[in-house]
Amino acid sequence: MSRLLQKLYDVCGMIAGGLILCICLLISAQICLNAFGRFAPGILPSTIPSYADFSGFMLAGATFLAMAHTLRSGGHIRVNLVVSRLSQTTQFVAELFVLIAATGLIGYATYFMGALVVESVHYGDVSTGIVPVPLWIPQGVAAFGIGLLLVAVVHTLFDLLSARAPILSSPGEV
Amino acid sequence: QSWDMPTPYGDSTFHTQNIAQFADDVREATDGALDITLHSAGSLFPHAEIKGAVRNRSVPLGEFFLSRLSNEDLAFGVDSQPFVATSYEDAARLWAAQEPVITELLAEQGLIPLFSVPWPAQGLYTNGEIATIDDLNGLRFRAYNAALEEFATLAGAAPVQIEASNIPQAFATGQVEAMITSPSTGVNSTAWDFVTHYTPINAWVPKNIVVVNQRMFDGLDADTQAAVLAAAEAAETRGWEMSAAEAESMTATLADNGITVYEPSATLIEGLQAIGETMLGTWDAAASDSARAVLNAYNN
Amino acid sequence: MSDPMIGLILLGLLMALLASGVWVAISLSLVGLAGLVFFSNAPSGLVLASTFWGHSHSWALTALPLFILMGEILLRSRMSDDMFSGLVPWLSRAPGRLLHVNVFGCAIFAAVSGSSAATAATIGRMSVPELTKRGYPESLILGTLAGSATLGLLIPPSIILIVYGVATEQSIARLFIAAIIPGIMLMTLFASYVAVRAWMNPDLIPAIDETFSLREKFRASRRLIPVALLIGGVIGSIYGGLASPTDAAALGVVLATILAWTSGAFSWKLFGAAVMSATRTSCMIALILLGAAFLSVSMGFTGLPRNLAAWISDMNLSITALLVALTIFFIILGCFLDGISVIVLTTSIIMPMVSAVGIDPIWFGIYLVIVVEMSQITPPVGFNLFVIQGLTGIDILRIAKAAFPFFLLLLLGVLLICLFPQIVTFLPTYMAS
Ligand code: NA
Ligand code: NA
């Protein structure tokens, strides 16, 4: 189960990386069109419609999908200068507190991101640019990503409880 | 009771000043029972999120650019359709036709329109005078929505997407050579730094709208509701006057700073209106019944 | 409850959460949530969701992951090593030697990117490992990087000047021009500081024993060609009108990849590793930005920064006293909020009092940006500190300590533009006439 979940975080992380590459390709294509239009006007269309909107949506997708993967690789930063000077037992309690607080906040955020998607579906919200994109699609990806972060936090909480020792301060082990 | 109100534009914009006056009027009329705090320049929510935030009651009321909603229904965007309404009189008639229709559309989302105020009419900025529509041929033209993109293509110009904040640099580097925007935007982006000519072709008169959440409004007592509606009506009247004054003073500012302001020639207007007709055809094919209803009411 | 009391409670909560090791982004969001739930009447859950969504898909933000990716590719290619080897002969006599790469590298990169986080991430990705390998002291490596990267905000293009220009309706072109001399001034201050430190304590900087003839210098410089092509290509595309500053980031990635491949020692595997590393770093920064945005919205609802600014406004101070009061106010606020939030939350109150005493709004914009630059390197909430912790794993408090001299240099910069406003106003006035 644990390995299956880890696989899921990593696959989503890779999709996020792919989205960043897609942003790069999309914008590069637009620059090529700009250059073409400058030197040989009128041959190719001059713009990719709503490319800024699409880049933004892909960025949101990349951010939210990578959250769980980043958490499990110790990529989200925290201040451990204070905690690392405490005894192992106190560190364990501190990490328990950290993970419970994070579970609470991210659970809350997941619930309301879900509510946002439901609302977008209900009212059929679309983006305001040249190409109308149904907003529930990128919002749904975002909600899924933050939901996966919730799973990863709870997963880490289980790891902590079964290890009975602090695990967050040495990111290699997470 | 205290209400937070997000608006997208800065404090020196006449729209924001008008709304600040509206908030003062409400406070005074209700003896402070309803206190509206203004959060200007998108400081609470980005422009794109304001409508949603009012709808889900994150905030009770807010302002946004009306034709942003034209992807939901073309009825919202009639005021941004080129050469349909090209003067304040036309714009006022168009709003009279548009208001009942969009009131109904917004009601489906639990929103009530309070008042709507136009921006000054949109003029054409170029380097050199544009005498006929052919002069636009081959120019790189700033387009930030579907209608402008279609307009540019029909005029034989090349549409280019440029963010408003990037306008001066885009002109300086030759990325764009012409744009249609209001004299206010021209002054704010110090258009005299990068263009020489301006002509008030009055392509369209777009509007901002202030909406309130139905359930929040219903939660007010009858006296407060009446005070809000009275202040809104006053704000609409005042806003239209401010807009006309703004158009005049901003055009003068353009001229004072060395931009040649000229009246569009009859042939140019003719050419532009021909494009407007063609665009209206495309528009009509995609329009919903409500959007057509607006246009019919306006034309009769 | 009174405003100062609410402020202190929220500050205490933020400190406690951070100290107990709660992730920075989560700490910021929790404090924002506490502010909304206890001290405002807004529906906190919906505001949280709207803010997280609304701030995650902004176009201005898309440049950030791309610049970070560019840094990751350069790090894994031979180019970053080449760049340092190429610069060694030129900087071997300069007091402070290769530390100046941080200062000038950040200044040059600041002309490409609009944010200080992207500048810190891209330059730091290459310079921190190279300088550490060569034995430079950690505090100066981190300090010069954290400090100089703040130039990303001031040297145009600058996201924060755009935000200020839009919020106050000032010409963005004029703001950009006004920022040039102050940017060069700060760069000079930073470089001089490095030189003075090296001159006072010669053992601090690892020696370069070889001496180089002019011919050797030029031969070594050939290794700088790929990096020069990259920088030239990116800056050229912006000023040649082919790309907006956000677009240019994508071009930077493409060019970096091509150059990495042609200069050898690059592979698909390294490319994949670069992409994944960039994905994690930008996700980390984006999540903190979302937390900071939510905290900022929460502050907007509670009205704390607004009331604080209004309190200063009610004192009816003279210009000098007002600027002193505002600087202290912004430094304190900048410890806990990110720079853009500070500006957005307070301009409505600050601008009227600034124009009332007759301060030039263009000058004030530059002043604000320098003050906001300080907030990037003050703990607990300083984005350059976060980025560098993400790069090096070194705790933000240690980085903040290393960056403290640069905080003082920025303060000196503020003092200089207050004493000699011409530093800011000269170029815009000159261009206008
Ligand atoms: Na910059
Ligand atoms: Na700070």
TrEMBL record, chain A:
Annotated keywords: Cell inner membrane, Cell membrane, Membrane, Transmembrane, Transmembrane helix, Transport
Molecular function via GO: transmembrane transporter activity
Protein's cellular compartments: Cell inner membrane
Domain Tripartite ATP-independent periplasmic transporters DctQ component: 31-161
Membrane topology of this protein: Multi-pass membrane protein
Main location: membrane
InterPro entries: DctQ, TRAP_DctQ
Gene Ontology terms: biological process: C4-dicarboxylate transport
An example Gene Ontology CC term for this record: plasma membrane
Signal peptide: none
Coiled coil: none
Annotated TM spans: 12-36, 48-71, 92-116, 136-158
Similarity-based family: Belongs to the TRAP transporter small permease family.
Protein purpose: Part of the tripartite ATP-independent periplasmic (TRAP) transport system.
Quaternary structure and interacting proteins, as annotated: The complex comprises the extracytoplasmic solute receptor protein and the two transmembrane proteins.
Protein name, as recorded: TRAP transporter small permease protein
Protein species of origin: Nereida ignava
TrEMBL record, chain C:
GO cellular component, one term: plasma membrane
Alphabetic keyword roster: Cell inner membrane, Cell membrane, Membrane, Transmembrane, Transmembrane helix, Transport
Subcellular location: Cell inner membrane
GO molecular function terms attached to this record: transmembrane transporter activity
NCBIfam families tied to this protein: dctM
Recorded family membership: Belongs to the TRAP transporter large permease family.
Protein name: TRAP transporter large permease protein
Organism: Nereida ignava
